[in-house]
Amino acid sequence: xxxxxxxxxxxxxxxxMLQECLRGELRLVNTGLPQSQKRQSKENKLFYLxxxxxxxxxxxDGSTHLFKKNELEYLASMIDTDEQKALSLPMLIxxxxxxxxxxxxxxxxxxxxxxxxxLNMPVTCEERRIRIYKPQLALxxxxxxxxxxxxxxxxxxx
Amino acid sequence: MPELIKVRPTKIELVKLKRRLSLxxxxxxxxxxxxxxxxxxFLQTARxxxxxxxxxxxxxxxxxxxLSVAAGYHGYIALEKELIATEVDLKVTAGSRNVAGVxxxxxxxxxxxxPMKGYNLVDTSSWLDRAAQLSEESLRAIVELAELQxxxxxxAMEINRTKRITNALEYIVIPGLQVxxxxxxxxxxxxxxxxxxxxxxxxxxxxxx
Lengths: 158, 209
What we know:
- The complex is a heterodimer.
- Chain A is α+β, with helices and mostly antiparallel strands.
- Chain A has helices at residues 13-29, 46-51, 69-78, 81-86, 109-119, 134-143, 154-157, and strands at residues 56-58, 64-66, 91-95, 101-105, 125-126, 129-133, 148-152.
- Chain A is 41% helix and 18% strand.
Protein backbone atom coordinates (compact mmCIF):
# COMPACT_ATOMS: atom_id res chain seq x y z
CA UNK A 1 0.00 0.00 0.00
CA UNK A 2 1.54 3.38 -0.96
CA UNK A 3 2.25 5.81 1.86
CA UNK A 4 0.19 8.96 1.88
CA UNK A 5 2.10 12.20 1.62
CA UNK A 6 2.24 14.29 4.73
CA UNK A 7 1.28 17.51 2.97
CA UNK A 8 -2.47 17.86 2.89
CA UNK A 9 -2.53 21.64 2.46
CA UNK A 10 -1.90 21.13 -1.22
CA UNK A 11 -5.15 19.42 -2.07
CA UNK A 12 -4.97 18.33 -5.68
CA UNK A 13 -6.98 20.32 -8.25
CA UNK A 14 -8.72 17.07 -9.10
CA UNK A 15 -9.98 16.75 -5.54
CA UNK A 16 -11.20 20.36 -5.53
CA MET A 17 -12.93 19.89 -8.85
CA LEU A 18 -14.59 16.75 -7.58
CA GLN A 19 -15.93 18.50 -4.50
CA GLU A 20 -17.31 21.29 -6.69
CA CYS A 21 -18.82 18.74 -9.03
CA LEU A 22 -20.58 16.97 -6.16
CA ARG A 23 -21.98 20.23 -4.83
CA GLY A 24 -23.07 21.14 -8.35
CA GLU A 25 -24.93 17.84 -8.71
CA LEU A 26 -26.90 18.55 -5.54
CA ARG A 27 -27.82 22.01 -6.78
CA LEU A 28 -28.63 20.85 -10.30
CA VAL A 29 -31.27 18.24 -9.55
CA ASN A 30 -33.83 20.62 -8.10
CA THR A 31 -33.27 23.73 -10.19
CA GLY A 32 -36.25 23.00 -12.41
CA LEU A 33 -38.80 23.32 -9.63
CA PRO A 34 -41.26 26.19 -9.58
CA GLN A 35 -40.35 28.95 -7.13
CA SER A 36 -41.65 27.87 -3.73
CA GLN A 37 -43.24 31.20 -2.79
CA LYS A 38 -45.25 31.15 -5.99
CA ARG A 39 -46.29 27.53 -5.68
CA GLN A 40 -49.58 28.44 -4.02
CA SER A 41 -50.23 31.56 -6.05
CA LYS A 42 -53.12 31.96 -8.44
CA GLU A 43 -50.85 31.97 -11.47
CA ASN A 44 -49.99 28.31 -10.96
CA LYS A 45 -53.56 27.03 -10.95
CA LEU A 46 -54.82 25.14 -13.95
CA PHE A 47 -57.86 27.38 -14.38
CA TYR A 48 -55.73 30.51 -14.81
CA LEU A 49 -53.03 28.80 -16.84
CA UNK A 50 -55.66 27.75 -19.36
CA UNK A 51 -56.46 31.38 -20.04
CA UNK A 52 -52.86 32.39 -20.67
CA UNK A 53 -51.47 32.67 -24.17
CA UNK A 54 -48.19 31.09 -23.14
CA UNK A 55 -48.92 29.04 -19.99
CA UNK A 56 -45.73 28.86 -17.95
CA UNK A 57 -44.23 29.07 -14.47
CA UNK A 58 -40.94 30.54 -13.26
CA UNK A 59 -38.43 28.05 -11.86
CA UNK A 60 -35.94 28.35 -8.99
CA ASP A 61 -33.10 29.17 -11.37
CA GLY A 62 -35.10 31.96 -13.02
CA SER A 63 -35.88 29.99 -16.16
CA THR A 64 -39.43 29.31 -17.30
CA HIS A 65 -41.24 26.02 -17.56
CA LEU A 66 -43.67 25.99 -20.47
CA PHE A 67 -46.82 23.89 -20.38
CA LYS A 68 -48.36 22.38 -23.48
CA LYS A 69 -51.86 23.60 -24.15
CA ASN A 70 -53.18 20.22 -25.20
CA GLU A 71 -51.99 18.73 -21.90
CA LEU A 72 -53.69 21.46 -19.94
CA GLU A 73 -56.87 20.91 -21.90
CA TYR A 74 -56.65 17.18 -21.25
CA LEU A 75 -56.28 17.86 -17.52
CA ALA A 76 -59.17 20.30 -17.60
CA SER A 77 -61.38 17.72 -19.25
CA MET A 78 -60.93 15.43 -16.22
CA ILE A 79 -62.07 17.87 -13.55
CA ASP A 80 -64.65 20.61 -13.03
CA THR A 81 -64.02 24.37 -12.77
CA ASP A 82 -63.70 24.49 -8.96
CA GLU A 83 -61.18 21.70 -9.04
CA GLN A 84 -59.31 23.48 -11.84
CA LYS A 85 -58.96 26.46 -9.53
CA ALA A 86 -57.49 24.21 -6.84
CA LEU A 87 -55.01 22.26 -8.95
CA SER A 88 -51.47 23.66 -8.75
CA LEU A 89 -49.16 22.95 -11.64
CA PRO A 90 -46.72 21.42 -12.26
CA MET A 91 -47.48 18.37 -10.14
CA LEU A 92 -44.43 17.29 -8.18
CA ILE A 93 -43.15 13.73 -8.37
CA UNK A 94 -40.90 13.03 -5.42
CA UNK A 95 -38.15 10.45 -5.65
CA UNK A 96 -37.34 9.11 -2.23
CA UNK A 97 -35.20 6.56 -0.52
CA UNK A 98 -36.97 3.56 -2.03
CA UNK A 99 -35.85 3.29 -5.63
CA UNK A 100 -38.83 1.30 -6.91
CA UNK A 101 -41.31 3.88 -5.66
CA UNK A 102 -42.17 7.47 -6.43
CA UNK A 103 -44.63 9.75 -4.69
CA UNK A 104 -46.80 12.50 -6.07
CA UNK A 105 -47.10 15.39 -3.68
CA UNK A 106 -50.75 16.32 -3.34
CA UNK A 107 -52.29 19.28 -1.59
CA UNK A 108 -55.88 18.19 -1.95
CA UNK A 109 -58.21 15.63 -3.41
CA UNK A 110 -57.83 17.02 -6.94
CA UNK A 111 -54.45 15.44 -7.58
CA UNK A 112 -55.81 12.12 -6.35
CA UNK A 113 -58.70 12.35 -8.81
CA UNK A 114 -56.47 13.33 -11.72
CA UNK A 115 -53.90 10.61 -11.08
CA UNK A 116 -56.61 8.03 -10.55
CA UNK A 117 -58.22 8.92 -13.88
CA UNK A 118 -54.93 9.08 -15.75
CA LEU A 119 -53.75 5.72 -14.46
CA ASN A 120 -57.23 4.24 -14.66
CA MET A 121 -56.93 2.77 -11.18
CA PRO A 122 -57.82 3.87 -7.65
CA VAL A 123 -55.05 5.64 -5.72
CA THR A 124 -54.97 6.84 -2.14
CA CYS A 125 -53.32 9.85 -0.62
CA GLU A 126 -51.36 9.18 2.59
CA GLU A 127 -49.45 11.91 4.40
CA ARG A 128 -49.92 14.22 1.41
CA ARG A 129 -48.29 11.68 -0.89
CA ILE A 130 -49.71 9.36 -3.56
CA ARG A 131 -47.36 6.42 -3.86
CA ILE A 132 -46.92 4.83 -7.28
CA TYR A 133 -44.49 2.36 -8.79
CA LYS A 134 -42.05 2.88 -11.66
CA PRO A 135 -44.23 1.39 -14.45
CA GLN A 136 -47.08 3.68 -13.40
CA LEU A 137 -44.66 6.57 -13.23
CA ALA A 138 -43.65 5.95 -16.85
CA LEU A 139 -47.31 5.91 -17.87
CA UNK A 140 -47.99 9.10 -15.98
CA UNK A 141 -45.00 10.88 -17.47
CA UNK A 142 -46.10 9.83 -20.92
CA UNK A 143 -49.47 11.49 -20.41
CA UNK A 144 -48.26 14.53 -18.48
CA UNK A 145 -44.87 15.43 -19.91
CA UNK A 146 -44.93 19.12 -19.11
CA UNK A 147 -47.38 19.18 -16.22
CA UNK A 148 -45.24 17.02 -13.93
CA UNK A 149 -41.69 17.58 -12.65
CA UNK A 150 -39.31 15.49 -10.59
CA UNK A 151 -38.27 16.50 -7.10
CA UNK A 152 -35.34 14.86 -5.38
CA UNK A 153 -36.38 14.46 -1.79
CA UNK A 154 -34.58 16.58 0.81
CA UNK A 155 -34.28 13.40 2.88
CA UNK A 156 -31.62 12.17 0.49
CA UNK A 157 -30.31 15.54 -0.62
CA UNK A 158 -29.79 17.01 2.85
CA MET B 1 -6.81 -0.84 -6.59
CA PRO B 2 -8.10 2.44 -5.14
CA GLU B 3 -5.41 5.00 -4.35
CA LEU B 4 -4.86 6.53 -0.96
CA ILE B 5 -5.76 10.18 -0.61
CA LYS B 6 -2.88 12.36 0.50
CA VAL B 7 -3.79 13.52 4.01
CA ARG B 8 -2.08 14.08 7.36
CA PRO B 9 -2.69 11.14 9.69
CA THR B 10 -4.66 13.11 12.30
CA LYS B 11 -8.05 12.62 13.91
CA ILE B 12 -9.38 15.83 12.36
CA GLU B 13 -8.53 14.54 8.93
CA LEU B 14 -10.30 11.28 9.74
CA VAL B 15 -13.46 13.18 10.68
CA LYS B 16 -13.19 15.24 7.49
CA LEU B 17 -12.74 12.11 5.41
CA LYS B 18 -15.75 10.46 7.03
CA ARG B 19 -17.84 13.53 6.24
CA ARG B 20 -16.61 13.50 2.67
CA LEU B 21 -17.45 9.81 2.38
CA SER B 22 -20.96 10.38 3.67
CA LEU B 23 -21.43 13.27 1.19
CA UNK B 24 -20.12 11.13 -1.67
CA UNK B 25 -22.46 8.28 -0.79
CA UNK B 26 -25.45 10.62 -0.69
CA UNK B 27 -24.48 12.16 -3.99
CA UNK B 28 -24.02 8.69 -5.44
CA UNK B 29 -27.57 7.82 -4.41
CA UNK B 30 -28.95 10.98 -6.01
CA UNK B 31 -26.92 10.52 -9.17
CA UNK B 32 -28.05 6.90 -9.46
CA UNK B 33 -31.70 7.92 -8.98
CA UNK B 34 -31.22 10.63 -11.56
CA UNK B 35 -29.61 8.19 -13.96
CA UNK B 36 -32.50 5.76 -13.64
CA UNK B 37 -35.00 8.57 -14.26
CA UNK B 38 -33.04 9.86 -17.23
CA UNK B 39 -32.85 6.36 -18.68
CA UNK B 40 -36.59 5.91 -18.26
CA UNK B 41 -37.23 9.25 -19.97
CA PHE B 42 -34.72 8.43 -22.69
CA LEU B 43 -36.39 5.10 -23.50
CA GLN B 44 -39.81 6.76 -23.53
CA THR B 45 -38.51 9.51 -25.82
CA ALA B 46 -36.93 6.90 -28.08
CA ARG B 47 -40.27 5.07 -28.38
CA UNK B 48 -42.10 8.34 -29.01
CA UNK B 49 -39.53 9.38 -31.61
CA UNK B 50 -39.94 6.14 -33.54
CA UNK B 51 -43.71 6.53 -33.40
CA UNK B 52 -43.56 10.19 -34.44
CA UNK B 53 -41.21 9.37 -37.33
CA UNK B 54 -43.50 6.61 -38.56
CA UNK B 55 -46.45 8.95 -38.23
CA UNK B 56 -44.65 11.67 -40.18
CA UNK B 57 -43.69 9.28 -42.96
CA UNK B 58 -47.31 8.09 -43.21
CA UNK B 59 -48.55 11.67 -43.31
CA UNK B 60 -46.01 12.67 -45.95
CA UNK B 61 -46.78 9.61 -48.03
CA UNK B 62 -50.51 10.44 -47.95
CA UNK B 63 -49.73 14.09 -48.69
CA UNK B 64 -47.59 13.32 -51.74
CA UNK B 65 -50.23 10.97 -53.07
CA UNK B 66 -52.95 13.59 -52.62
CA LEU B 67 -50.72 16.26 -54.16
CA SER B 68 -49.89 14.12 -57.19
CA VAL B 69 -53.58 13.36 -57.74
CA ALA B 70 -54.31 17.09 -57.49
CA ALA B 71 -51.43 17.81 -59.88
CA GLY B 72 -52.78 15.22 -62.29
CA TYR B 73 -56.25 16.71 -62.10
CA HIS B 74 -55.29 20.38 -62.44
CA GLY B 75 -51.95 20.17 -64.21
CA TYR B 76 -48.65 21.41 -62.73
CA ILE B 77 -48.79 24.92 -64.08
CA ALA B 78 -52.33 25.59 -62.86
CA LEU B 79 -51.55 24.03 -59.49
CA GLU B 80 -48.39 26.09 -59.01
CA LYS B 81 -50.33 29.23 -59.91
CA GLU B 82 -52.93 28.45 -57.26
CA LEU B 83 -50.40 27.49 -54.61
CA ILE B 84 -48.40 30.73 -54.88
CA ALA B 85 -51.10 32.46 -52.81
CA THR B 86 -51.27 29.81 -50.10
CA GLU B 87 -48.14 30.75 -48.16
CA VAL B 88 -48.85 31.52 -44.51
CA ASP B 89 -46.61 32.30 -41.55
CA LEU B 90 -46.55 29.47 -39.09
CA LYS B 91 -46.40 30.23 -35.40
CA VAL B 92 -44.53 27.82 -33.20
CA THR B 93 -44.38 28.34 -29.45
CA ALA B 94 -40.88 27.48 -28.26
CA GLY B 95 -40.07 27.09 -24.60
CA SER B 96 -38.23 24.74 -22.36
CA ARG B 97 -38.85 22.39 -19.48
CA ASN B 98 -36.69 20.62 -16.97
CA VAL B 99 -36.39 16.85 -16.70
CA ALA B 100 -34.29 15.81 -13.71
CA GLY B 101 -31.88 18.67 -14.21
CA VAL B 102 -31.81 18.61 -18.01
CA UNK B 103 -33.29 21.59 -19.77
CA UNK B 104 -35.03 20.34 -22.87
CA UNK B 105 -36.87 22.31 -25.54
CA UNK B 106 -40.60 22.22 -26.03
CA UNK B 107 -42.25 23.21 -29.32
CA UNK B 108 -45.90 23.55 -30.04
CA UNK B 109 -47.58 24.62 -33.26
CA UNK B 110 -50.04 27.34 -32.38
CA UNK B 111 -53.54 25.92 -32.16
CA UNK B 112 -55.34 28.31 -34.47
CA UNK B 113 -53.30 27.76 -37.61
CA UNK B 114 -54.85 29.67 -40.44
CA PRO B 115 -56.46 27.21 -42.84
CA MET B 116 -54.04 26.91 -45.74
CA LYS B 117 -56.63 27.73 -48.33
CA GLY B 118 -55.44 30.90 -49.91
CA TYR B 119 -56.31 29.54 -53.35
CA ASN B 120 -59.44 30.09 -55.35
CA LEU B 121 -62.03 27.56 -54.22
CA VAL B 122 -64.05 27.90 -57.40
CA ASP B 123 -61.21 26.94 -59.74
CA THR B 124 -59.84 24.09 -57.65
CA SER B 125 -61.07 20.66 -56.69
CA SER B 126 -61.51 18.81 -53.41
CA TRP B 127 -58.23 16.95 -54.18
CA LEU B 128 -56.35 20.14 -53.45
CA ASP B 129 -58.37 20.69 -50.27
CA ARG B 130 -57.38 17.22 -49.16
CA ALA B 131 -53.69 17.91 -49.92
CA ALA B 132 -53.87 21.18 -47.95
CA GLN B 133 -55.43 19.42 -44.97
CA LEU B 134 -52.78 16.70 -45.05
CA SER B 135 -49.99 19.26 -45.28
CA GLU B 136 -51.24 20.89 -42.04
CA GLU B 137 -51.16 17.52 -40.32
CA SER B 138 -47.65 16.88 -41.65
CA LEU B 139 -46.48 20.19 -40.23
CA ARG B 140 -47.73 19.22 -36.80
CA ALA B 141 -45.93 15.90 -37.08
CA ILE B 142 -42.69 17.67 -38.17
CA VAL B 143 -42.78 20.01 -35.17
CA GLU B 144 -43.45 17.10 -32.81
CA LEU B 145 -40.60 15.08 -34.29
CA ALA B 146 -38.21 18.05 -34.07
CA GLU B 147 -38.91 18.36 -30.35
CA LEU B 148 -38.58 14.67 -29.68
CA GLN B 149 -35.31 14.30 -31.60
CA UNK B 150 -33.70 17.20 -29.77
CA UNK B 151 -34.90 15.81 -26.43
CA UNK B 152 -33.50 12.43 -27.42
CA UNK B 153 -30.05 13.92 -28.13
CA UNK B 154 -29.95 16.02 -24.97
CA UNK B 155 -31.05 13.16 -22.75
CA ALA B 156 -28.45 10.85 -24.30
CA MET B 157 -25.68 13.40 -23.65
CA GLU B 158 -26.80 13.87 -20.06
CA ILE B 159 -26.97 10.11 -19.48
CA ASN B 160 -23.35 9.81 -20.69
CA ARG B 161 -22.25 12.60 -18.36
CA THR B 162 -24.16 11.18 -15.40
CA LYS B 163 -22.77 7.70 -16.05
CA ARG B 164 -19.23 9.06 -15.93
CA ILE B 165 -19.97 10.70 -12.57
CA THR B 166 -21.56 7.52 -11.22
CA ASN B 167 -18.60 5.43 -12.31
CA ALA B 168 -16.11 7.92 -10.88
CA LEU B 169 -17.92 7.85 -7.55
CA GLU B 170 -18.40 4.10 -7.50
CA TYR B 171 -14.94 3.00 -8.61
CA ILE B 172 -12.60 5.83 -7.64
CA VAL B 173 -13.87 8.35 -5.10
CA ILE B 174 -15.73 6.16 -2.61
CA PRO B 175 -13.23 3.27 -2.59
CA GLY B 176 -10.38 5.82 -2.25
CA LEU B 177 -12.05 7.41 0.76
CA GLN B 178 -12.81 4.02 2.31
CA VAL B 179 -9.22 2.83 1.87
CA UNK B 180 -7.84 6.05 3.35
CA UNK B 181 -10.22 5.88 6.32
CA UNK B 182 -9.20 2.27 6.88
CA UNK B 183 -5.51 3.22 6.62
CA UNK B 184 -5.90 6.05 9.16
CA UNK B 185 -7.83 3.80 11.56
CA UNK B 186 -5.06 1.20 11.32
CA UNK B 187 -2.47 3.91 11.92
CA UNK B 188 -4.28 5.14 15.06
CA UNK B 189 -4.66 1.59 16.38
CA UNK B 190 -0.95 1.06 15.79
CA UNK B 191 -0.18 4.25 17.74
CA UNK B 192 -2.40 3.06 20.60
CA UNK B 193 -0.59 -0.26 20.71
CA UNK B 194 2.80 1.50 20.70
CA UNK B 195 1.59 3.74 23.52
CA UNK B 196 0.48 0.75 25.58
CA UNK B 197 3.79 -1.04 25.04
CA UNK B 198 5.69 2.11 26.00
CA UNK B 199 3.65 2.50 29.21
CA UNK B 200 4.28 -1.13 30.13
CA UNK B 201 8.00 -0.64 29.56
CA UNK B 202 7.98 2.54 31.70
CA UNK B 203 6.08 0.67 34.45
CA UNK B 204 8.69 -2.08 34.46
CA UNK B 205 11.51 0.48 34.61
CA UNK B 206 9.79 2.34 37.48
CA UNK B 207 9.24 -0.96 39.37
CA UNK B 208 12.95 -1.87 38.97
CA UNK B 209 13.82 1.68 39.97
